[in-house]
Inverse folding.
């Protein structure tokens, strides 16, 4: 039976460390601030934004949500982002995705000041993945590393297989594992014989959005399996991994819900604190 990697427990530990760090920063009169830009009234986005706001307040971060209507023009959205870029009290700017169809998401994400790019989606940060040192890794990817580290799962030298190459999860996660010296294979929709690759994985990250994609036969005995999928099947949330069979064979596995999900918001807070430190503290302050 695999060890269950409980995201809620790990996220609670991250939050505890962060609350202390934020309290120390506030003693140095550094008050980290996150601004979330929310366009339109999609219920799921609104609920994600509320949970971000709630966790920020809980930890002593300042958080502000800028709500814009679904028919906001691209130029007005950009103007709002530029106001945040120019505001010295703001450390982190997050544009909640997805944006409405009439808005060019790539263009908007390029408008965020790269030093305030808390999601790590600005091309300048993406370019920094290539040298293994972005200012911050995207929140889900950062959460995966946090899980591996806190589970004492080695990464260097391991064979890591990432199923999925979205720019939000799959691609940055493969880059992060490579930066930590894993041997990385990235699979995607056109990969032939997926199982031949996944069966080699010491670390298997699945972010494909396909319920039941990975079954026990597709997994090496003892592997660490990180399931990033969130699918609704018959009213229940399930991942991309068939938990009941894979749990019998893997060495460790994240459940869905309650695995990677709880880490994602916590890592947004951690990224905000990191950007605040980089912007506001000199090397001497950091000593
Ligand atoms: P997410 O945001 O969770 O990464 P996306 O829907 O944006 O999800 O991306 C899904 C990714 O998963 C894509 O890169 C796609 O190529 C990959 N994918 C989807 N289905 C399969 C599959 N059956 N086998 C391998 N990769 C897949």
């Amino acid at each position: 039976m695999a060890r269950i990697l409980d995201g809620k427990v790990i996220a609670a530990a991250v939050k505890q460390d962060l609350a202390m760090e934020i309290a120390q920063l506030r003693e140095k009169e550094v008050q980290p601030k996150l601004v979330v830009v929310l366009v339109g009234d999609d219920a799921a986005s609104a609920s994600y934004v509320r949970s971000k706001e709630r966790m920020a307040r809980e930890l002593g971060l300042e958080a502000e949500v800028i709500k814009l209507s679904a028919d906001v023009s691209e130029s007005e959205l950009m103007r709002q982002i530029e106001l945040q870029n120019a505001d010295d009290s703001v450390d982190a700017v997050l544009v909640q995705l997805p944006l409405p169809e009439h808005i060019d998401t790539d263009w908007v994400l390029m408008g965020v000041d790269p030093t305030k790019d808390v999601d790590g989606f600005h091309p300048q940060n993406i370019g920094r993945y290539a040298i293994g040192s972005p200012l911050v890794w995207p929140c889900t990817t950062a959460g995966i590393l946090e899980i591996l580290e806190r589970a004492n799962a080695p990464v260097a030298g391991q064979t890591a297989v990432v199923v999925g190459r979205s720019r939000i999860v799959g691609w940055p996660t493969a880059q992060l594992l490579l930066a930590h010296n894993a041997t990385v294979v990235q699979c995607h929709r056109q990969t032939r014989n997926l199982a031949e690759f996944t069966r080699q994985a010491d670390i298997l990250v699945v972010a494909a959005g396909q319920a039941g994609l990975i079954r026990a036969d597709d997994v090496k005995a003892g592997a660490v399996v990180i399931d990033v999928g969130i699918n609704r099947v018959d009213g229940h949330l399930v991942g991309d991994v068939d938990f009941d069979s894979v749990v019998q064979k893997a060495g460790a596995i994240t459940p869905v819900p309650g695995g990677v999900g709880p880490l994602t918001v916590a890592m947004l807070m951690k990224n905000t604190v990191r950007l605040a430190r980089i912007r506001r503290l000199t090397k001497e302050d950091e000593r």
In short: The pocket of adenosine-5'-diphosphate is lined by residues 163-166, 168-170, 187-189, 191, 194, 207-210, 213, 228 (CB under 6 Å).
